[in-house]
Design a protein that fits this description.
Elements lengths: L2 H40 L2 H35 L1 H34 L6 H30 L5 E3 L2 E3 L3 H5 L4 H29 L4 H36 L1 H7 L6 E2 L3 E8 L4 E8 L2 H7 L5 E2 L13 H30 L8 H9 L3 H15 L4 E3 L3 E2 H4 L6 H38 L5
Length: about 450
């Protein structure tokens, strides 16, 4: 393994782990505050118990997200100093603001965790809301920095120099809204289905059915609403990518030839040598419509992109297909759940519906990882789209391969520890209720 590959793998591995911790940390506080609000309004103690159980999970993921995020910030300086030398003054503002949001989140979380029975109950609830809002803002700011890499703005690039820097324009670049919207909804989808799936499994096992049923419903509503909104944000993102990064769109769809009324490709195996996609389902004109709002519009193919500027087609295409396929599966489950809520209430008591949510537990995070693969791999060979190549940005430190092994071990250890802590938390809830400590509910 050469140092360049080790540096890229370390960054990819770190991002792959951090994105999971970060998304759960962004979304779980909203689940927690909804349960808390219901408890304040109804006085049903089961919702207080759900709130307190989820608050412990929020604390766990806040800590692990802080650790993994700190590692990433060091990696930017250690592995990509050439990139940070030029990009830092331009897109540093969202990172600075993210730090501010992080500190606000930390302070509010401290009030929330230690404020039970010590402060005004509505002030206590409001601190939980602040935790959720500041966490969401942190995520949006980080995505704004990433979107700048896809849509660089706020500077003039003249003779290899970055001049006339405008950090505000860089932060609110053309891609920030579509990427932030898509990412935030994806966080709710992935976390919602994961949490709902865990509680569905506990219901199927007959463990603390009242507790897990209340928790399941809150998480399931968040997940299914977000799953229905995600195709809308996906359409916005697709049109944005088509206008700014035609090479990425072509790689996503394995669209080798520029043509009008371009078909949407579902599945298939890209053959880059023959410049065709085998065994794919093609829907005529649909790609043109999705990209440009016109069934007859011309869609740029890879034949218009210089070979040295083309992204890895196979990886980008497969990742995109996985993301869309899993998204459609979760959308289907969301529709079933809404039918159950409104028309077929007897379905809510059926094991098959709960089993579907159990199966869907990992789907959101798999789709999330696939989506980030599309975003990052689809931009290659550029680290700053059209301005700086990835190969020119990395300056790997000596022995980076050993650092890669070390940080891989750290992230695997974090995952094991988090899994253990969450499992213990679920078991503790079970023992509490099984011992007869469950409060009387209506």
């Amino acid at each position: 393994m050469d140092d360049f590959l080790a540096a890229r793998l370390q960054m990819a591995f770190s991002l792959g782990f951090h994105i999971v911790f970060a998304c759960i940390g962004m979304v779980m506080p909203f689940f927690m505050t909804v349960a808390h609000f219901i408890w304040l309004k109804t006085k049903k103690a089961v919702y207080r118990d759900v709130t307190q159980a989820w608050s412990k999970g929020v604390a766990i993921f806040f800590a692990t997200g802080a650790v993994s995020g700190t590692v990433l910030s060091f990696e930017l300086g250690l592995l990509w100093p050439k990139f940070m030398e030029h990009a830092g003054p331009i897109f540093g503002m969202p990172f600075s603001l993210e730090g501010t949001a992080f500190f606000i989140e930390a302070i509010a979380l401290g009030f929330y965790l230690y404020g039970w029975n010590k402060v005004n109950r509505w002030f206590h609830w409001a601190t939980g809301v602040v935790v959720g809002v500041s966490g969401l803002v942190s995520g949006i700011l980080v995505v704004a920095a990433n979107s700048w890499m896809n849509s660089p703005s706020g500077f003039d690039y003249i003779n290899g120099e970055y001049l006339n820097i405008d950090p505000i324009k860089a932060m609110f670049n053309e891609a920030w809204f579509s990427q932030s919207l898509h990412m935030c909804i994806a966080a709710f989808v992935s976390t919602g289905f994961a949490v709902a799936g865990v509680h569905a499994l506990m219901i199927l096992r007959g463990s603390n059915v009242l507790f897990h049923s209340k928790a399941f419903k809150i998480a399931a509503v968040f997940a299914t609403v977000a799953a229905c909104l995600q195709p809308i944000s996906g359409d916005i993102s697709a049109k944005d990518v088509a206008g700014r990064q035609p090479a990425k769109l072509a790689a996503m769809e394995a669209h080798f030839h520029t043509e009008k009324a371009a078909p949407l490709i579902i599945g298939g195996i890209p053959d880059t040598a023959a410049k065709e996609v085998k065994y794919a389902i093609k829907i005529p004109g649909l790609l043109s419509f999705m990209a440009h709002g016109d069934f007859n519009a011309e869609v740029t193919g890879l034949d218009k992109i210089p070979p040295q500027d083309q992204p890895p087609v196979a990886v980008t295409h497969y990742a995109f297909q996985i993301m869309v396929g899993l998204g459609m599966a979760m959308l289907g489950l969301a529709i079933l759940y809404f039918i159950a809520l409104w028309k077929k209430k007897q379905w809510l008591d059926q094991k098959w519906l709960l089993k579907l949510f159990v199966v869907a537990t990992p789907l959101g995070f798999l789709a999330l990882e696939a989506g980030w693969t599309v975003t990052e791999v689809g931009r290659q060979p550029w680290i700053i789209n059209g301005v700086m190549r990835t190969a020119d940005a990395v300056t790997p430190m000596p022995g980076i391969r050993y650092s890669f092994y070390l940080f891989t071990a750290v992230y695997i250890s974090l995952s094991v520890i988090v899994t253990f802590l969450l499992y213990r938390q679920i078991r503790m809830v079970g023992k509490l209720y099984d011992s007869g400590a469950q409060h009387q509910n209506d």
